[in-house]
């Protein structure tokens, strides 16, 4: 006996799939309602820490992810300037355990596709172009409206619909992501031969300049600056802005700069942060992933926390007889403090940079979070 037999999920990202896959594998009926017209993911690349890789293994997709991504151990810190001097070579904690690398870079749409294909192979129905417009508790479950039309009653509705979650609003949770004061350029370019792990440059014209390999022939690059209104910048101008900024950095940036053109996949977003205080559910509806908590990618734990949310929720749903208060108490006990620790540490790292605090113990804070993440949620 499990707590649910019929589940609806809003959103088709990593949080959604980490609930859908285990439930469908156990025989539950799962419908996913995705606003976009197809499986896609904003951005260029993603860094997955070891605990994210451990979660992907639990979902049965680790072999495919490993084949598509670029695993690595360690982190290189370099100085701005033409020589790009190496400041430190840091070992990274294997937060997923000894069976997984410390981290991996990969192309975001590849991860989205792998997870969606795994889910549909188990019978999950993904409805594209479908906007959730109503969530209503009943005496026996919760009904869902999509595009203004009722689509049925479910044992549970999961809002895994991202930063600007519709489900979060529909069930009356008021917390919203707020800007932290930083903006980030992301671009997807050919990999420079010497880039075999994440490398970060602190200082220069931006707070952070960095890159991560995502495959044998690909990598993604980031530039973190003060938040600005860059959202309407045309591709050619975006490439020129990135080229100008990176003239302060040497090493692999010399090759990267030549590959930043009007045809490069570039996007710009602001860093945001929030954590829902108190319960993430209202009755039989719950939000997880970025809908429940968001943070800057300064520790690269966003995807890991979203995956863990879904796995813990599905584990509890499959091991209990009812969606009741004891289930929600167990869920919140295992997830809220852990997610909050990541959000607070990620925001603190950015705040230290905004304040130009040279005495901040960034390495100590990162190591402390990594130690926490090595424990299973």
What is the topology?
Blueprint: E1 6-10, H1 14-25, E2 29-34, E3 45-49, H2 50-58, H3 62-68, E4 70-72, E5 75-78, E6 86-90, E7 103-107, H4 108-121, E8 125-128, E9 132-137, E10 142-146, E11 149-154, E12 156-159, H5 166-170, E13 178-189, E14 198-202, E15 208-215, E16 218-226, H6 235-246, H7 253-258, E17 265-275, E18 281-282, E19 285-287, E20 293-294, H8 302-319, H9 325-354, H10 362-374
Parallel strand pairs: 1-2, 1-12, 2-8, 5-14, 12-19
Antiparallel strand pairs: 3-7, 4-7, 5-6, 9-10, 10-11, 13-16, 13-17, 14-15, 15-16, 17-20, 18-19
Helix pairs in contact: 1-4, 1-8, 2-8, 8-9, 9-10
Features:
377 residues, alpha+beta, FAD/NAD(P)-binding domain, eight-stranded mixed beta sheet, six-stranded mixed beta sheet, 10 helices, 20 strands, 33% helix, globular
Explain the overall architecture.
The chain is an alpha+beta fold. The protein has a domain at 6-69 and 108-177 and 274-374: FAD/NAD(P)-binding domain, CATH 3.50.50.60. The protein is built from 10 helices and 20 strands. The strands form 4 sheets. Strands 6-5-14-15-16-13-17-20 form an 8-stranded mixed β-sheet, sandwiched between helices. A 6-stranded mixed β-sheet has the order 8-2-1-12-19-18. A hairpin with a 7-residue loop joins strand 5 and strand 6. Helix 1 (14-25) packs parallel to helix 4 and helix 2 packs parallel to helix 8. The longest helix is centred in the C-terminal third of the chain and has 30 residues, at 325-354. The two termini are 24 Å apart.
């Amino acid at each position: 006996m499990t707590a649910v037999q019929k589940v609806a999920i809003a959103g088709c990202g990593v949080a959604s799939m980490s609930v859908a896959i285990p439930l469908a594998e156990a025989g539950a009926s799962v419908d996913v309602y995705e606003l976009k017209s197809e499986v896609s993911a904003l951005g260029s690349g993603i860094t997955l820490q070891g605990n994210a890789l451990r979660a992907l293994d639990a979902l049965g997709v680790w072999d495919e992810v490993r084949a598509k991504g670029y695993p690595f151990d360690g982190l290189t810190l370099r100085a701005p300037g033409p020589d790009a001097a190496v400041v430190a070579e840091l070992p990274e904690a294997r937060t997923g355990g000894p069976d997984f690398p410390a981290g991996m870079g990969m192309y975001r749409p590849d991860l989205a596709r792998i997870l969606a294909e795994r889910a549909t192979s188990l019978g999950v129905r993904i409805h594209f172009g479908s906007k959730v417009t109503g969530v209503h508790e009943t005496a026996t479950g919760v009904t869902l409206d999509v595009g203004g039309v009722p689509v049925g009653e479910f044992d549970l509705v999961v809002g895994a619909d991202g930063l600007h979650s519709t489900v979060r609003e529909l069930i009356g949770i008021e917390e919203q992501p707020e800007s932290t004061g930083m903006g980030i350029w992301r671009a997807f370019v050919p990999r420079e031969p010497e880039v075999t792990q994440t490398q970060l440059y602190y200082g220069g014209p931006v707070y952070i300049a960095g890159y991560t390999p995502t495959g044998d022939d690909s990598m993604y690059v980031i530039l973190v600056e003060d938040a600005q209104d860059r959202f309407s910048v045309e591709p050619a101008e975006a490439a020129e802005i990135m080229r100008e900024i990176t003239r302060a950095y040497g090493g692999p940036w010399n090759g990267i700069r030549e590959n930043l053109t009007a045809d490069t996949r570039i996007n710009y977003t602001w860093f945001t942060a929030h954590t829902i205080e108190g319960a993430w559910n209202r009755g039989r509806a719950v939000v997880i992933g970025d809908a429940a908590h968001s943070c800057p990618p300064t520790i690269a734990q966003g995807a890991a926390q979203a995956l863990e949310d879904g796995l813990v929720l599905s584990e509890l749903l499959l091991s209990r007889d009812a969606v009741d208060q004891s289930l929600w108490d167990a869920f919140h006990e295992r997830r809220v403090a852990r997610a909050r620790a990541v959000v607070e540490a990620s925001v603190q790292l950015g705040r230290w940079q905004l304040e130009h605090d040279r005495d901040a113990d960034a390495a100590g804070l990162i190591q402390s979070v990594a130690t926490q993440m090595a424990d299973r949620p």
